[in-house]
Amino acid sequence: MNLRLPLLLCLLLLASGCATISPEQRRAAFDAVEAAHAVAESCTDPGDAACRPVDSPLLALGEQALAASAPGAPRHHVTLLERGQDALVARVHLIRAARESIELQSFIYDTDESGLLVLEELLAAARRGVKVRVLLDQLYGLPNPGLQASLAGAHPNFELRLYNPTFNEAKTQQLEYAAGILCCFGDFNRRMHTKLLLVDGHTGITGGRNIQDRYFDWGPSYNYRDRDILVAGPVAAAMRGNFESFWTFERSRQAQALRDVSERLANAGSQPHPYLDPGREKSPRVQAMQALSANGTAVWERLAPLTLEVGQVDFHADLPNKHVGGQKAHEDASVAMRDLVESTRSELVLQTPYLVLSREARRLFRLMHRREDPPAVWISTNSLAATDAFPVYAMSHKYKRLYLRELGFRIREYKPYPAQSPIEVAATGALGPRMATLPIFGSGSAGSASGPVPLKRAGVRVGLHAKSIVIDDRIGVVGSHNFDPRSDNLNTESMVVVHDHEFAVALRASIELDMQPQNAWTIARREKPPLFSGLNYSLGKLSEKLPIFDIWPFPYASSFELREGCNPLPPEDPGFYDCHEDVGAFPEVDLPLKTVYTRIVTAFGAGLVPIL
C-alpha cells in the first residue's frame, strides 16, 4: 500500500498544529477587539423602537411557568415547531423580545438568508443591552475568518466562541480535513451536535434544526422535514447549565484566539464585513419574516394553537468532556434515551433520519422483541430518494432483514415528494402556505456520494431530519440525538423529555402523518419466490454477516406502494401483497441498480457503522 499520501497529510497536520499564534499577534488581535468595542454603537434611545424589546406573550410563558411552579410540582409550556418557518419565526421573535440574555448553540450555522437574518437580530439585541453568547461547532459554524474577525469586535455585549477548532483555525481546508481524519480521528471527529436557543434564562428552543435555509423551508431544491420544541419553565435552568459547561470548556475558543482570525485582526483590526451591512438588500421573505417577528400578538396567534401546558419536563444533554481519555462518561443523552426505550411497555414510535443502530441498541431491541408480550416498534426514517447521506442509508439497507425479522420493526421510509408535509413552500407567498403541495422547483441534486442521489422527477425534495420518540402515548421526546452510533460515541447531543399524555399523542400524530402511504413507502419482506425461498433467505442472512459489505444480489426486503382503491394492511396480513405493489429497493432513484450497489460495495461497509 502506498503510504506517501497519508504520511504527507500527517506531516501537514503536525506542521499546522505547531504553527501557534505568537504572543505579539495574540496581543495585537485582542487589542484590536477592545478598540472596536470601545467605539461600537449602542442603542439607548427609549423613543426608538429598535432600542426596545418587543412585547411577547410567547416569552412571557417562561415567567408564568416559573411563577406557577412549586418544589416537586413544575409547570411548563411546550410548543411543537413542526413547520420550518414557525421555527424561524419563533427564534427571531424571541431574540427581538430578549431583555437580559441570549445563548445560542449550533452545529451548523450558514451565511444564507436565515443565517444572516438571525445574526443581524443577535447583533441588534446586543446593541440594546442584551448579553449575547454564540457557541458554534468550528467545522460548520460560520467558517469565515474575515466574518469572525468582524463579529469579534462587533459589540462588547456579543461574544462568539468555536468548539473544538481544527488546527486552531476558523476555516478548515480540505487537506487539513483529510489529515485530521487520518491522523487524529478521535479528537477531530468529536463534534458539538447540540442545538439550543435560550432567552432570558427561562425560554428555550432545541431539537434537530441548525441555522441554515434548508431547515426553515427556504432551500431552493432540498429542505429538511425537521422538528424543534420550544419549552418555557424551570427546565430551562438545566439548559443554561449545560450551555455553561460547553462555554467554559477548554475546547471552546474565542474567535479572536483562532490563528486565521487573529492574523486578520492583528493586521487590519476588526473591519466591517459585507454580510453585516445593515443596508444590504433583503429579499421579500426576509422582510416579511422581520415584520411578523416584531409583532408579538401575531406570533402568539400563529403558535398558540401548537402550545400546551404540561408538568414534568426533563432535559438530558451530554457534557463536552464526553468520552474523555477513551472512557465512556458524561453521555447523559444516550443513557437517558436507552432507558426510555427500555421502559416501553406496549408501543414505541421512533423517528430518525438514519436507521443505523449500534450493537448495544440492537441488543436492547432484540431483548424487547423477545419479551412474552413484545411492544410494537414503529420506525419512520429516510428512503434513499429522500436522504442526503448515501453512506448512512447504505448501512441501513444492509440490515433490513435484521430490523424486520429479528427486531420486529415496522419501517416506513419517507418519500422525497410527500403529498402531505409540514414543509412550507416559501415561493408561493411571503412566508409560505401551511402545507406544501406539488414540487415547484427543479431538483438541485448532483447525485454525489455525499449528497442526495438524482431522482426521476424534478422538484423541491424533502429529506427527513427529525429525531423524536413517543413511548406508550405517555412520554414524548424531541432532541438532536439520531439514535445511531455516532450520536452515542462521538457527538454531544441533547433531548427534551415531556411526561404528558396530550403532548405524546400530538407528537405521535405528527410522526404518523409522515408514515402514511401518501408520504412513505412500507418496507416489508419481498414476496417469497416459488422455488428455493429458504435457500435464498439463508444465503442472504449469511451474506449480511460479512464484515465489510453484503454481496448477495437478492435482498430480503423491498419498498411497497399502496395500490389505488386498497386500504393499508400490515405486511403479515395474507392480503398485503394484493394491496401493495413492490416498487423496488430504491424507488424514485434515477440510477441503475448496478450503480447503486456498486457504490455500496466500493464505498461503504459495516466497519463504518460506529462513525456514520
Describe the overall structure:
The protein is α+β, with helices and mostly antiparallel strands and 612 residues long. It is 36% helix and 19% strand. The protein contains 21 helices and 21 strands. The strands form 3 sheets. A 10-stranded mixed sheet has the order 11-18-17-16-12-13-14-19-20-21, sandwiched between helices.
What's the layout of helices and strands?
Layout lengths: L3 H15 L4 H17 L17 H12 L7 E6 L2 H14 L3 E9 L3 H15 L3 E11 L3 H8 L5 E6 L10 H10 L1 H4 L7 E4 L3 E5 L14 E4 L2 E5 L3 H12 L4 E3 L4 H10 L15 H10 L2 H8 L3 E4 L2 E5 L14 H11 L4 E5 L7 H11 L6 E7 L7 H9 L1 H7 L2 E6 L46 E4 L3 E4 L3 E5 L5 H5 L4 E5 L2 H14 L5 E6 L7 H12 L12 E6 L13 H4 E5 L8 H11 L9
Parallel strand pairs: 2-3, 3-4, 7-15, 12-13, 13-14
Antiparallel strand pairs: 1-8, 1-10, 2-5, 4-9, 5-6, 6-8, 11-18, 12-16, 14-19, 16-17, 17-18, 19-20, 20-21
Helix pairs in contact: 1-7, 2-10, 4-5, 4-11, 4-12, 6-10
Write a brief caption for the model.
The chain is α+β, with helices and mostly antiparallel strands and 612 residues long. The chain has 21 helices and 21 strands. Strands 11-18-17-16-12-13-14-19-20-21 form a ten-stranded mixed β-sheet, sandwiched between helices.
